[in-house]
Specification:
46% of the residues are buried. The chain is globular. The chain contains eight helices and seven strands; from the N terminus they run E-H-E-H-E-H-E-H-E-H-E-H-H-H-E. It is 45% helix and 14% strand. By secondary structure, the chain is an alpha/beta fold. Bound molecules: NADPH dihydro-nicotinamide-adenine-dinucleotide phosphate (NDP).
C-alpha cells in the first residue's frame, strides 16, 4: 500500500532544465516512480543524453527544445508534450541561472535576464500548463527556489530577488488552484554540486570551503538528493501539502 502513494505510473511530468543538474536528478526520481518525462531545455546534446538516461528507466521520455523566456516557445512546448505524451500531471519549474554582480554593478538587461529565466518562466509555464494540470484531477507543480529565497548574498542581486519571488508565487498559486486539487510547492536547494555552482566556485574565492563549514551535513549536495523530494511532491503522498517551501540543504538553513 505504501508504494502506491508514490506511484507515478500513467503520469506525465514536464521538467524545465531537466537535461542536467538538479533537474535531471528530479527527472530520474520521477522516471523511477513510473512517470513519462518531457525534458525542456536549450542544449540539444544535453537533452538527448538525458532522454537516453531516462528511457533506460522504462518510461517514455522526450526532449522539447525550448527557451523558457520565450512565451511562444513555451506554448509550442506544452502543445508538443500533450500531443506526444497525452497529458500533463506534473510541472517542475527548475530552469535557472545567475549573473553574479553586486546591486550597483548589475545592468538592467542582466537583471531582466535572471528574472525572466528564474521567475517569469515559472509563471508562464504554470499558466500555460494549468488547463492540463486541472484536467489531470491531481496536478502538481514543483518550483525550485534556493537558499537565496531565505538569505541574501552580495553577488546574488537579481538571483535572490527571483528566488524570493518564487516562494511567494508558489503560495499564490497554491491558494488559487487548491479548488482544482492542484498542489503547488517549492523546493529550496542548499549548495549542490552542478554546472551552476561550479561557475560560482570559480568566481567566488573560498566559496567551496565556506559551504562545507556552514553545512551541518558536512558536504555539498548531490543531484541524487532531489529524486525523493520530487517524487513526494509529485505523488498522492503529498495531496494535503501545498504552498510550502521545503529546504533540501543538509541543514544549511537551520545552522545557528
Ligand atoms: P544547471 O546549470 O546544471 O542547470 C540549469 C538548467 O536550466 C539547465 O538544464 C539549463 O538547460 C536550464 N536553463 C537555463 N536557462 C534556460 C532557458 N532560458 N531556457 C530553458 N532552459 C534553461 O544548474 P542547477 O541544476 O544547479 O540549477 C537548477 C535549478 O536549481 C536552478 O533554478 C537553480 O537556481 C536552482 N538552485 C541550484 C542550486 C545549486 O547549488 N546548484 C542551489 C539553489 C537553487 P540548457 O543548458 O539546455 O539551457
Amino acid at each position: 500500500m505504501t508504494s502506491s502513494r508514490f506511484d507515478l505510473r500513467g503520469k506525465v511530468a514536464v521538467v524545465t532544465g531537466g537535461n542536467g543538474g538538479i533537474g535531471l536528478g528530479m527527472a530520474r526520481g520521477l522516471a523511477d516512480a513510473g512517470a513519462d518525462i518531457a525534458v525542456v531545455g536549450r542544449n540539444e546534446a544535453k537533452s538527448k543524453a538525458a532522454v537516453e538516461d531516462l528511457s533506460q528507466r522504462g518510461v517514455k521520455a522526450i526532449a522539447v527544445a525550448t527557451d523558457v523566456t520565450d512565451k511562444a516557445a513555451i506554448e509550442a512546448m506544452i502543445a508538443r508534450v500533450v500531443k506526444d505524451l497525452g497529458r500533463i500531471d506534473i510541472l517542475v519549474n527548475n530552469a535557472g541561472m545567475s549573473i553574479r554582480k553586486p546591486p550597483h554593478e548589475l545592468e538592467l538587461d542582466e537583471w531582466n535576464k535572471v528574472i525572466d529565466t528564474n521567475l517569469t518562466s515559472a509563471f508562464l509555464c504554470s499558466k500555460l500548463a494549468y488547463p492540463h494540470l486541472k484536467a489531470s484531477g491531481n496536478g502538481k507543480v514543483i518550483n525550485i527556489g534556493s537558499m537565496m529565497s531565505i538569505f541574501g548574498a552580495s553577488f546574488a542581486t537579481a538571483y535572490a530577488a527571483s528566488k524570493g519571488g518564487i516562494v511567494q508565487y508558489t503560495r499564490a498559486c497554491a491558494n488559487a488552484w487548491a479548488p482544482d486539487n492542484i498542489q503547488v510547492n517549492a523546493i529550496l536547494p542548499g549548495w549542490i554540486d552542478t554546472d551552476l555552482t561550479r561557475g560560482a566556485r570559480q568566481q567566488v574565492s573560498g566559496l567551496h570551503e565556506r559551504v562545507l563549514a556552514r553545512t551541518p551535513a558536512g558536504r555539498w549536495g548531490d543531484i541524487d538528493d532531489f529524486a525523493g523530494i520530487a517524487v513526494f511532491l509529485a505523488s498522492p503522498a503529498s495531496n494535503f501539502v501545498t504552498g510550502t517551501a521545503i529546504p533540501v540543504d543538509g541543514g544549511f538553513s537551520v545552522m545557528a
